Amino acid sequence: MKLLKLNIILLLLVLVNAPSRSQSLDINVQGEIYEYATYYVSSFDIATGATNVQIFNYSLESNTYPVFIKIRFRATILSPGLGINSEATIVEIETDPFLIQDGLYLDNRDLSSDATFLNDNSGNQIELQGRLIGVLDPALSESIMQTILTSGKLSDGQYTFSVSIFGGTDESNLSNVFNDSKTFVIQSQIPISLEYPGGALTDTTDNLLYTNFPIFQWSSGPPAAYAETFIRVAKFDPDSHNGLEDAIEDQRVLPSNQNEQWELIDNVNSYQYPFSGSYPLDAGNIYCWQIKISLPTTSGNEDMISPIFAFKIGQAGTIETSNIVSNPLLMMIQQTLPDQFNNYFGSGRELEGFLPSGQIEINGITVGPSVVNNLLQQIMNQDYQVQSVVVE
Q1: Model's pTM, two decimal places?
Q2: pLDDT of 121 higher than 50
Q3: Structural domain boundaries enclosing 130
Q4: Taking every pair of C-alpha atoms in the chain, what is the biggest distance, in angstroms?
């Protein structure tokens, strides 16, 4: 009897100290869905759902292995202008469950209805077999198909890309462990329109500037967060250049590094000629400028390039100079806030002839010209609005 009791106690101790085999599954996923300005249909194989363009990338780690994983990807469109008033599937694909022995990277370029292979972090080869759940119905909207056939790219509209990952230790009983989606709007790109300074080469007499630091302004629709904006400025020499195109491809004053064709700037619609890092704009010379906006698409970066404007730096003394502003700070204020400037610095006004001196402070902090320039550009872009002006 005592022996039986001792055996029961020993068995209980073994069970208490035995490691648990019912550890809860914890799968961690990190990554993102990438956004492009244009999605070309040629980047997708409608027959298999495959694409050679990176739409998403994730890293996956589990607290226990082996584990079964399944991935689902869906792309939809909503475009009332094309008669699509509810979400329509462009492509939806799902993999069969597959077993992993270690963490791995998931990339949409590995997914299609054809069998593909990838390796986990330990080098174990994994076979992926996928199947199409749905694709764009050609009969859904004749207008969208006509647009695609004409332009070769997805039509204007609201698009949503979504990724779901399922996991579990039982192939037949997987649970949803991760969801991600991104919705964005595709719009036809608006051509870049230069606004100031300048115009046609024949009109430089009407486009005289009396500042060596002009603020360039243009419009191109709402700037996309993923776009890159560039500018270039060159001197036009009528003795050596056949036109503005010839001049802009020749030696540039901005960027000053002649190995660079363009100067990368902030993604805005205005830019002041810099006080350093460029060649000076000299009085009496004609200059030309151009803007480029680079947008990522599923077929690589595409560049939108503006026309070329010409302007001339006027010679002080050749016209009445009493109202000509030569101080760089006043030039910036005049171009950014012309009405307020004239109210205070104009002829017969309170600050006529005033020249700034000493330190510049913003909110009690001493700042340099570049900070002031940035603030004035934000006012010009209507990021800030002037409520009132007080002169002390």
Answers
A1: 0.56
A2: yes
A3: 22-186
A4: 123
